[in-house]
Design brief:
mainly beta, Beta-galactosidase, Chain A, domain 5, nine-stranded antiparallel β-sheet, globular, binds 6-O-phosphono-beta-D-tagatofuranose
Length: 277
């Protein structure tokens, strides 16, 4: 376990004995790099990402909480992605490494969202796999209600050559057009701006590229967002390079369609797992 400065922000790097490695910023508890054992970087991080307190970092796995997107009164994607989390623990075992970061409510959070909460982000890497788990507990005396997502920017060599499999038959919201559909294809290809929320995706998803593939599965995170800004939207994002959109595809498990309700004293967790296939 190594503490480091990552473009000016404090981070920790966990490395398993088999060489698998992940780097997590305290800013947003955001995973910004994952390299499986003997492999290559699997997360996209924009070359123009900004690394400043209060600003979201473009790439890696931002945590959207307690609101996904603009589906409510809070700032877009909530507020935990732009504040500093504490490192609770980090260690390596015989074939894994893990770290947990925590965030509790404080004056700043209560001014935005007037609730007591405790959030924990645990990253566990083994050879070819990374589990990212968000845990939330309600220490207050009123119910908590939230939506969330693990907004994973997966690296692609060339997004137009990638296919997303495992979505067939799912109901989805096409957020580019504002229309609802049922997925009829066995493979989704990314050839234009794509922003979809697939609901109740029970089966694993696969991101297939020529000569490599990644399996993506969720537990307690029933919905899956697929997002690529493509050329025009990307050009309006100052933290993306002109060709950056070709090197990424966001596939994000979340609890979006049905908010999570936590009674006083209750706990919840949701996990997304990435596996090199
Ligand atoms: O997850 C998809 C999405 O909600 C898109 O609509 C897009 O706006 C994206 O997130 C990125 O949001 P951001 O606030 O990080 O620019």
């Amino acid at each position: 376990v190594q503490h480091l400065d990552f473009n000016g922000l404090p981070a920790i790097r966990i490395t398993a004995p088999n060489g698998a490695q992940a780097t997590i910023l305290q800013h947003g508890a955001q995973v910004v790099s994952w390299i499986p054992a003997g492999g290559e970087e699997r997360l996209f991080l924009s070359e123009r990402a900004r690394f400043e307190p209060g600003v979201p970092v473009r790439g890696g796995i931002p945590i959207c909480f307690p609101q996904f997107g603009s589906r409510g009164p809070l700032p877009k994607h909530g507020f935990v992605r732009t504040v500093s989390w504490d490192i609770e623990s980090a260690r390596a075992g015989s074939d894994f490494a893990t770290a947990t970061l925590v965030l509790n409510d404080d004056d700043v959070s209560r001014a935005i969202w007037p609730h007591a909460f405790r959030a924990e982000l645990t990253v566990l890497i083994s050879g070819q796999r990374m589990d990212v788990e968000l845990g939330v507990s309600n220490p207050g005396d009123e119910p908590l209600r939230f939506t969330c997502a693990l907004h994973s920017y997966l690296a692609t060599r060339e997004v137009e050559e990638a296919r997303v499999e495992g979505l067939r038959g799912l109901r989805y919201l096409d957020a580019v057009r504002g229309t609802e559909h049922k997925e009829s294809g066995t493979e989704l290809m990314i050839e234009a701006e794509t922003d979809r929320i697939y609901f109740e995706a029970a089966k694993p998803i696969m991101l297939a590229e020529p000569r490599r593939a990644l399996g993506i599965s969720g537990e307690n995170l029933p919905d899956v967002v697929v997002w690529n800004p493509w050329e025009h939207l990307s050009a309006t994002l100052p933290d993306m390079t002109p060709l950056g959109f070709r090197r990424m595809l966001c596939i994000e498990h979340g609890a979006i369609g049905r908010p999570v309700e936590l009674a006083p004293g209750a706990e919840w967790w949701g996990r997304q797992s990435l596996v090199v296939l």
